[in-house]
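sorry for the late reply, my laptop died twice this morning and i had to redo everyting from scratch. anyway the thing you sent over, i finally got around to it. pasting the sequence first so we're on the same page, its 339 residues, then the predicted structure underneath. double check i copied it right bc i was rushing
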Amino acid sequence: MSERLTAGRRGFFISLGMSLAALVVVLIFTVDEHTISSMLQLYPGYLAAAFFMVVLLWLVEGLRIKVLAWMLDCRQPLPWRQAVSVFLVSFFFSGVTPLAVGEMPALVYGLTRRGISAGKAAAVALVRAFLTKCTSVLSAAFLLFMGGRFVTAGMPYFRFFRGVFWLAGVSLLLYLLLICCAGPVVVALNRLFDLPCLQKLCCRKPKVKKWFDGFCAEAGRFRETVAHINRRRLPLVLLPFFLTVLYWGLYYSIAPVLLAGFGVRAPFGTAVMWQILIILVLPYIPVPGGSGAVEFGLATLFSSFVPASVLGVFIVAWRFFTYYLTLICGAVLAFRFKR
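ok and here's the structure:
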């Protein structure tokens, strides 16, 4: 874990540095004589509301992880507070690794520290990722296809977003395939480990055999846990799915709240629409936390209805509440593990 934290610390500074550099560039091109007056007119109540929404995001996501652990028959009870801590740490590792590859391992590790077996923790992480991806893809599908006539007129990047949508759809199908076909996958792994060459390796090195046996045991637990999503348990998926929708609904509402605080009457639907498309692209940006790309993308898409004098400081505020605040809190908890 110490090596992971060292890499996480490096990724943290890379992500933060690139994001701050992008924000400086945006501010250079947007700050003018009206910016100070707009900041002075900012009503503190809107900042307090944004902070309250972020805390509510943490609680909702912690509850979602807790419900998933219960739904997938994890016998070890997971307190709500610990579930929130697991989310914050996994968010940190998601934000400091390229393509957010550190999120699921960190989530599994955090759950195992709370007494849940690795196989069951992996099932929780997989179903959580599936629900998140499902919400993102369904929202983007409505905007790009069912509601396409409303967005194509002012969107020169429409084909780009559609291409990313199909990529996200493929990853969603892979998640679904892994959930539905967990049994055959585990059987295939067991047959793989029965190969003569691997059996000879296990005989020569007991530690390797112990690792293989442990892996197969956890894979079996993963299969048994995922198997609880059957016809009897399927209606229970609606609760974590509702929590997923609630989480992203709160997340997308932070930008309109901040814009209202700056005195900008932005169309709520348009502000939400651009955020949905940015979040759709975010997992495929090969930079920790999407730093740089998110700031420039938001500046480009929001410039059509947000005054230039407000745009830069709005992006700083939006990035702080939707990214920096959770990232820093997750970093504090992650580094506490080392001690």
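Residues 2-338 form one domain.
thats about all i looked at so far, will dig more tmrw
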